[in-house]
Specification:
With about 240 residues, this protein is an alpha/beta fold. The protein folds into two domains: about 1-50; about 60-230, 3-Layer(aba) Sandwich (Beta-carbonic Anhydrase, Chain A). About 40% of the residues lie in helices and about 15% in strands. Strands 2-1-3-4-5 form a five-stranded mixed beta sheet, covered by helices on one side. It starts with a helix and ends in a 7-residue tail after the last helix. It binds zinc ion.
Length: about 240
């Protein structure tokens, strides 16, 4: 009952409020107050989202999904769908984990590729990836459950404070995950039913194309950027 009362009062609070969503400010507040601010942020963001939409927006979502792509990304909070798809609802079958790994998310990816039949599987890493850095520096204090995932990440160096080595390891990992997926979905790729694309969401501007750009680095195992740029599926000029 207490929980029900809380939900009602929160619902009343947000019905009555038209405040813009604000980021939580975890400074000098008790944990309870921080949690309250976080819950408020999420509910207000949801409220703002719902109010912007036309009344019939959800009708077509009720009957099922037909996503345009399966997308594996890092769970990192700096990499979000709005950076890759402005209207992601119904578009992306999204699978997220630390370091955008394939082998620990096989079931979810399989569902997107073989049951929802998305014609594209994206695998998206990002600049300054903490999972890649941890796989490079191998800190001793991490739990076995985290190691099970980090051990599927392929890196090329061990200096996690060297930005160039991190960039190369992020690329190496994306290429490794694409290669893992290519082995599993060889038939779909060979018959043209699936294209596997690896990319890096570059908010550090490592590729000098501007911060926040998605840089495609692998298409069905092709990693030569000059050749990729000439491929009709990615050439829009
Ligand atoms: Zn990451």
């Amino acid at each position: 009952m207490q929980k029900f009362g809380l939900i009602i009062s929160l619902a009343f609070l947000f019905e009555a409020s038209s405040l813009m969503a604000q980021s939580p400010e975890p400074i000098n507040k008790s944990t309870q107050e921080q949690v309250r601010e976080i819950v408020r942020h999420v509910l207000e963001s949801n409220d703002e989202f719902v109010k912007k939409l036309p009344q019939d927006y959800f009708k077509e979502l009720i009957h099922g999904q037909k996503p345009i792509a399966t997308m594996v990304t890092c769970a990192d909070s700096r990499l979000h769908t709005h950076a890759l798809d402005i209207h992601p609802d119904g578009d992306l079958f999204l699978v997220r984990n630390i370091g955008n790994q394939v082998s620990t998310a096989e079931g979810s990816i399989e569902y997107g590729v073989r049951h929802l039949h998305t014609p594209v599987l994206f695998i998206i890493g990002h600049s300054s990836c903490g999972a890649v850095e941890a796989a490079m520096s191998r800190p001793a204090h991490l739990e076995p459950s985290i190691w099970r995932e980090l051990d599927t990440i392929k890196v090329t160096g061990n200096k996690s404070d060297d930005h160039l080595q991190v960039k190369e390891s992020v690329e190496s990992n994306v290429n490794h995950q694409v290669s893992t997926a290519l082995k599993k979905y060889a038939t779909e790729v060979e018959t043209g039913h699936l294209t596997i694309i690896g990319g890096v969401y570059d908010f550090r501007n490592d590729y000098s194309q501007g911060s926040g750009r998605l840089v495609l680095i692998n298409v069905n195992g092709e990693t030569d950027l000059a050749k990729i740029r000439k491929m009709p599926i990615v050439n829009f000029k």
